[in-house]
Specification:
The chain folds into two domains: 30 residues; 123 residues, Glutaredoxin (3-Layer(aba) Sandwich), CATH 3.40.30. It is 39% helix and 20% strand. The longest helix is centred in the first third of the chain and has 27 residues. By secondary structure, the chain is of the alpha/beta class.
């Protein structure tokens, strides 16, 4: 009986050790599931303790351009991360063209190169601007009209 109890403790310790080892291996990997147009990669799981605001935009969309300062400001809040995705990236637009637009419009948040459908299981929006609120890896809201800073704060349930 003592041997069985002793084995049970060893088994639990080894199982915990293997979990920690796996986490360390994954953390050491340089490849993430999110790739950014501006360069770099991260794991989407890194954002699970934050509210992610995904802004699907286009440089030919005047309301999208008007929203950029609101999203830049929102991205400065603790616990909130704004990510962008150019609508034409669903088809074909070069990274250089996206970077040019990001620079032209002074976009200060990261723009996804990775198709967000692969990460969050969303559909291509019918129009732009469209904004998704993502919490713990799940889309909780889809906003299909132009936003202001105040409307974004209200949708996130933040008191400013």
């Amino acid at each position: 009986m003592l041997i069985i109890l002793e084995f049970g403790h060893i088994y639990k310790a080894m199982k915990n050790y293997l979990k920690i080892l796996l986490l360390l291996i994954l953390a050491g990997c340089k490849q993430g599931d999110l790739e950014f147009t501006q360069g770099g990669k991260e794991f989407s799981i890194n954002y699970d303790n934050e509210i992610v605001v995904l802004n699907v935009w286009a440089d030919w969309c005047p309301p999208c351009i008007k929203e950029f300062p609101y999203f830049n400001r929102l991205n400065e809040l603790e616990g909130v991360t704004v990510l962008g995705f150019h609508f034409d990236q669903f088809d074909l637009i070069s990274d250089e063209d996206v970077i040019s637009a990001l620079t032209k419009f002074n976009v200060q948040f990261k723009n996804l190169k990775t198709d967000p459908r692969e990460i969050w299981g969303m559909d291509i929006p019918d129009h732009v601007p469209t904004t998704y609120i993502i919490e713990n890896g799940q889309i909780t809201k889809e906003l299909i009209k132009p936003q202001t800073y105040d409307s974004l704060i209200a949708e996130l349930g933040l008191n400013q």
